[in-house]
Design a protein that fits this description.
Number of domains: 2
Shape: globular
Low-confidence stretches: none
CATH architecture of the largest domain: 3-Layer(bba) Sandwich
Mean pLDDT: 92
Distance between the termini: 21 Å
Largest sheet: 3 strands, parallel
Number of helices: 6
CATH class of the largest domain: Alpha Beta
Oligomer: single chain
CATH superfamily of the largest domain: FAD/NAD(P)-binding domain
Length: about 230
């Protein structure tokens, strides 16, 4: 392993893994440091006791919350939280960039507005949706949050009969339901009952490991060092 890097990234989750790919594609020598490990055999990680109760794939460190030591639901494996999330990749609302509009009583004045706008970030949301192969509804059906200008990279599959019944009931009540935008390859998805909090058994759920890290290691100058914790910055 070379010790001469243009960038060293700590953590391989949504931020770290994506930036690692971008820098590597730009021709940089990149090192990605991850405290967790890579899962080789996904079968043991479909067990509810092990994954949900024992939190085997989550960060094993604790913090004190209300006087008790508590473990947080933060991914502790290569890919970080993107290796364990439910695949939902929804854009924010424009109002999310102006929290003071709704929460001025609880926020200091300097936090009322973001220093950047949704429109400035919109091109990067396009890139992220492309990278994670997001499947979504017709954008015209999605209200209150922002959507791509044209369409999502992939289509969502038809709803199951029970969900179709729910959709009709919601529409009858005067609301506008929509299918959550999901970073899931539905051509490969096994439709198993376990998704959020579990490791995907065949990598059909988009993660930085599947969509960014492995490809960058194979095609660019990215090196990954797992089981390695950054203790301080010098």
């Amino acid at each position: 392993m070379t010790n001469d890097f243009d960038a060293i990234i700590i953590g391989s989750g949504a931020g770290g893994g994506t930036v690692a790919l971008a820098l590597a594609k730009a021709g940089k020598q990149v090192l990605l440091v991850e405290r967790g490990n890579r899962f080789i055999d996904s079968e043991p990680y479909q067990d509810e006791q092990r994954m949900v109760i024992d939190m085997a794939a989550f960060d094993d460190r604790t913090i004190e919350v209300n006087g008790r030591n508590t473990r947080l639901f933060i991914g502790g494996i290569l890919g970080g939280g993107t290796s364990l999330y439910g695949g939902v990749l929804m854009r924010p609302s424009r109002n999310d960039f102006h929290p003071g509009k709704y929460y001025s009583e609880w926020l200091p004045r300097h936090l009322w507005d973001w220093p950047i706008t949704y429109d400035q970030l919109s091109p990067y949301f396009d890139q992220a949706e492309s990278l994670f192969h997001v499947a979504g509804d017709d954008p015209k059906k999605i209200i209150h949050v922002e959507t791509p200008a044209h369409s999502y990279p992939a289509k969502t599959p038809p709803l199951e009969p029970i969900n179709q019944k729910l959709e009709r009931g919601i529409e009858k009540a005067g609301f506008t339901p929509f299918h959550l935008p999901l970073g899931i390859d539905f051509n490969r998805c096994l439709r198993c009952a376990k998704c959020p909090g579990y490791y995907c058994p065949n990598d059909s759920r988009a993660s930085t490991l599947v969509c960014a890290i492995d490809g960058a290691v194979s095609n660019y100058h990215l090196q990954v060092k797992t089981n390695t914790e950054a203790e301080c910055l010098v």
